[in-house]
């Protein structure tokens, strides 16, 4: 967001720009925690969400909700508010506007179910696309980046949010006292009468088909995410944006055609996560990761799946975008098996051979 005056928003150093975006995300986590807690009555939750953008100016306000780390965050909201109030006025106004729109959108969907794919996109826009808008404006205000088109900023948020919604099916559907249901009825109703039916073993085939359908829907945002990241100039901001996007395409590859999404927790191995963090330093690394994870999805496509042709089309388009950059390297990501396991097997066999050799000599 361009600054109204040069005095209210001077160009900060890179560390401050990164600090601003971290505080923006913390603000988003607070509002999302209030939204996610299904134990809060609607008549209480809706006003909190609608007024949240005002509460951030009040060091004395807090509302205890959520669980685990999120509860700690809400109990110590005064620290978030204090950090927010230390920012320049230009940053505060940008964050306030995005938070206001986000809270209003969340409140809307407290009283409305996600029925259509358009509803799904709208909900994800409120909870994540707007964060993309806000961050892009803050990068621009900081003088570190050009102002990205809203469509690209929105796709950055939607890809992350849709991936989380897909991965968290079981956690959301089993939420107490009330299920959280974000999968759009327009998609899941093609495969079941009720969204919760997918968690039962007798519905495995239809559940996986629905899962593949909704993963395919998420993949439509991947190319715009690549376009957004390719335009970034600041290394710290690039790193901040690229790692979650690679985690998202990797999680899509892990979830695709995977019935375990309906049985328990599905997430990338810590070793692979650490590797992604360590090895993501340039667009070449991003293109490589997107190409390889898209190839993994392609290898899992069943020709009998109702959406096989559409999924393959999206995957091929992502791969072509990566290849046309001329920056794809060969790296080799493994989702389900450790790359160290073959080495361990060889070491064990070698030790056994040495042991037998020693025994034979004796």
Report on the structure:
It comes from Zea mays (Maize). The chain crosses the membrane at residues 236-259, 340-360. Belongs to the phytoene/squalene synthase family. Its cofactor is Mg(2+). With 362 residues, this protein is mostly helical. The chain contains 16 helices and no strands. The protein has helices at residues 14-36, 42-55, 68-75, 77-85, 89-110, 117-141, 150-167, 169-173, 185-188, 204-219, 222-230, 235-255, 270-279, 283-300, 308-324, 341-361. Helices cover 66% and strands 0% of the residues. The radius of gyration is 23 Å and the shape is globular.
Instruction: Find the CATH topology of the largest domain.
Output: Farnesyl Diphosphate Synthase
Mean pLDDT across residues: 83
Q: Which runs of at least 5 residues are low in confidence (pLDDT < 50)?
A: 1-23, 337-347
CATH architecture of the largest domain: Orthogonal Bundle
Helical residue percent band: 55-70%
SS-derived structural category: mainly alpha
Q: For this structure, what is the CATH homologous superfamily of the largest domain?
A: Farnesyl Diphosphate Synthase
The 3D shape can be described as globular
Keywords: Membrane, Transferase, Transmembrane, Transmembrane helix
Enzyme class: transferase
Catalytic activity: 2 (2E,6E)-farnesyl diphosphate + NADH + H(+) = squalene + 2 diphosphate + NAD(+); 2 (2E,6E)-farnesyl diphosphate + NADPH + H(+) = squalene + 2 diphosphate + NADP(+)
Transmembrane segments: 236-259, 340-360
């Amino acid at each position: 967001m361009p600054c109204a005056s040069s005095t209210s928003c001077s160009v900060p150093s890179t560390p401050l720009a990164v600090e601003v975006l971290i505080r923006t995300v913390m603000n988003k986590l607070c509002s999302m925690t209030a939204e996610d807690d299904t134990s809060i009555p609607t008549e209480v939750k809706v006003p909190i969400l609608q007024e949240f953008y005002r509460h951030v100016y009040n060091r004395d306000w807090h509302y205890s909700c959520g669980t685990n780390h999120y509860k700690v965050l809400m109990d110590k909201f005064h620290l978030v508010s204090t950090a927010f109030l230390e920012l320049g006025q230009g940053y505060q106004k940008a964050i306030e506007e995005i938070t206001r729109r986000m809270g209003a959108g969340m409140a809307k969907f407290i009283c409305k179910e996600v029925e259509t794919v358009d509803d799904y996109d709208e909900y994800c826009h409120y909870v994540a696309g707007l964060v993309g808008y806000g961050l892009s404006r803050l990068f621009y205000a900081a003088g570190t980046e050009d102002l990205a088109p809203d469509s690209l900023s929105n796709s950055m948020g939607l890809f992350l949010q849709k991936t989380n919604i897909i991965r968290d099916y079981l956690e959301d559907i089993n939420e107490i006292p009330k299920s959280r249901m974000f999968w759009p009825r327009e998609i899941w109703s093609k495969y079941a009468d009720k969204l919760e039916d997918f968690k039962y073993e007798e519905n495995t085939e239809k559940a996986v088909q629905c899962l593949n359908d909704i993963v395919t829907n998420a993949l439509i945002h991947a190319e715009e995410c690549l376009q957004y990241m390719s335009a970034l100039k600041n290394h710290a901001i690039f790193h901040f944006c690229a790692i979650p996007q690679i985690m998202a395409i990797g999680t899509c590859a892990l979830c695709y055609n995977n019935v375990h999404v309906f049985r328990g927790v599905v997430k990338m191995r810590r070793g692979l996560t650490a590797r992604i963090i360590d090895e993501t330093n340039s667009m070449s690394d991003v293109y490589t990761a997107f190409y390889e994870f898209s190839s993994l999805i392609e290898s899992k496509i069943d020709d009998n799946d109702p959406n096989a042709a559409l999924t393959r089309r999206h995957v091929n388009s992502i791969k072509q975008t990566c290849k046309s950059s001329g920056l794809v390297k060969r790296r080799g990501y493994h989702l389900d098996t450790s790359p160290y396991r073959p080495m361990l097997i060889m070491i064990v066999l070698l030790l056994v051979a040495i042991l037998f050799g020693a025994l034979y000599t004796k």
